[in-house]
Write a structure and sequence with these properties.
The protein is built from ten helices and 20 strands. It has 414 residues and is an alpha+beta fold. Strands 3-2-1-6-11 form a five-stranded mixed β-sheet, sandwiched between helices. The chain has a five-stranded mixed β-sheet with strand order 14-13-12-17-18, sandwiched between helices. The protein is globular, with a radius of gyration of 22 Å. Bound molecules: adenosine-5'-triphosphate (ATP) and magnesium ion (MG). The site of magnesium ion has 7 residues, from loops. Adenosine-5'-triphosphate binds next to helix 6 and helix 7.
């Protein structure tokens, strides 16, 4: 609530992607729903594989997206929720046990869990971004969702600790701060995307979210409503475009257009007969337009997508969470929109794959109800109801920005 005028404080989120930056401003309604008041959308600069690679370029892209959203909504943002798609996320399962002495479990016990968890995390490389309790066991009884108020003598908590490269996190935060905005929270992209596209049943029973963006393909396994495993591959739609540009010696802008208009993830029977125009690099002359069979284009796209999905399969198998995610895969992100991508993913991952579009919100333009906006919309959901998690406040985040690498620990929603 805004203290000055008593109105609910607006929520601002920015999806800082390798291909686009999207800023959404929404108003939380009394019934808990959200109304989008303004959006700003901008081609991304200075972001490579989901991380800031050029501070000045990224700052101006973020600034332009925020300005457009502010103008559209007639408001000014002070703080925002932002995503991190790169930063080499790594998931580790941490288990901590605390003696509870038969007393009811309340905040002090959970603080002891947090302390032990902090000690366990000190052994793990990287900066913790999310530390999510995934299951509680009280005296051998498993499957407890929330142990508060329960009595027992020993509480075991399993946590998914998602760590990222500390420098990537700090660069992202500084970049946003350079746009005169405070960072309320940095959220892993795939956690946000999952919030936007998974049905409650999928999140509960087990599903894997694959967000195929421009520069990254993020993987998130969800079970019992929580993110239990996360990983990311620094490869996405931009690599497909570059392969086309190189393979057909055509400018990148044209390769991107060809990909969107004619691209297919798998060879089809019509591909062999259809011819498409390919302007050659450095040639303005119409005579220098080559014609190629559409199957040649597919022949360039397919191996790259196969490589990405094979890496996803390998990472899932190696993680030990492949089975936890069950047979359901929700494929989202801008690059998932290419025809045939769902079928190819299904074949390689040997799972049931559906395309995930974000849940519609009042005020959101139809043009933004696409898989490319899953992370941005998911950030809005995260902002209104954050995950239950143990927090490590990164330098520059929120009001506790003065803390260094590892700041204060507390449990949200205690
Ligand atoms: N219809 C389409 N067919 C194929 N590819 C598409 C289509 N529309 C968009 N893309 C591709 O989607 C990619 C951008 O997706 P998205 O907007 O999700 O990326 P991002 O969030 O900016 O990047 P990242 O999450 O990897 O940092 C681009 O490579 C673009 O070419
Ligand atoms: Mg993205």
């Amino acid at each position: 609530m805004d203290k000055k005028n008593g109105k609910p404080e607006l929520i601002g989120v920015i999806d800082i992607g390798s291909s686009k930056v999207a800023c959404l401003i929404a108003r939380p309604e009394v019934d808990g729903s959200l109304t989008v008041l303004g959006t700003g959308y901008q081609a991304s600069f200075g972001i490579r594989a989901g991380s800031v690679a050029n501070m000045d370029a990224a700052e101006s892209a973020i600034g332009a997206a925020v300005q457009a959203a502010e103008q559209a909504s007639g408001s000014t943002l002070r703080s925002v929720y932002v995503n991190l798609g790169g930063g080499q996320p790594n998931s580790a399962t941490v288990e901590v046990k605390v003696a509870t002495g038969g007393a009811a479990i309340e905040a002090p016990t959970l603080r002891r869990v947090a302390q032990q968890c902090k000690a366990a995390l000190a052994e793990i490389a990287g900066t913790p971004l999310h530390v999510i309790p995934t299951s509680y066991t009280l005296d051998g009884s498993r499957g407890i969702k929330d142990p508060r108020g329960m009595v027992g003598s020993e509480l075991t908590v399993q946590l998914n600790a998602v760590t990222v490269n500390g420098a990537a996190l700090r660069n992202l935060i500084s970049c946003v701060q350079r746009c005169h905005l405070d960072v309320s929270r940095v959220v892993l992209s795939v956690l946000a995307s999952g919030r936007a596209c998974l049905t409650p049943d999928e999140a509960d029973l087990g599903a894997t979210v694959i967000d195929m963006g421009g520069g990254t393909t993020s993987i998130g396994v969800f079970s019992e409503g929580e993110l239990v495993f996360a990983d990311s591959i620094p490869m996405g739609g931009i690599h497909v475009t570059n392969d086309i540009a190189r393979g057909l010696t055509t400018p990148t802008a044209h390769a991107e257009r060809m990909k969107i208009l004619f691209g297919h993830a798998m060879t089809t029977t019509t591909d062999k007969h259809e011819l498409i125009d390919v302007p050659q690099v450095g040639e303005d002359d119409v005579a220098m337009i080559a014609q190629v069979r559409r199957s040649l284009l597919t022949g360039i796209i397919q191996p790259r997508l196969e490589e990405i999905f094979e890496m996803v399969r390998a990472r899932l198998e190696h993680s030990g969470f492949d089975k936890v995610g069950g047979r359901r895969v929700v494929l989202t992100g801008g690059a998932s929109q290419m025809q045939g991508t769902r079928e190819l993913a299904q074949l390689i991952l040997d799972k049931q794959v559906r395309l995930g579009k974000p849940i519609a919100l009042p005020g959101l333009p139809e043009s933004q109800l696409t898989p490319a906006f899953s992370t941005a919309i998911g950030l809005l959901f995260y902002a209104t109801s954050p995950n239950t998690e143990f927090r490590v406040i990164a330098a520059g985040e929120g009001q506790k920005g003065l803390f260094n690498r590892i700041g204060e620990w507390f449990r949200e929603n205690v």
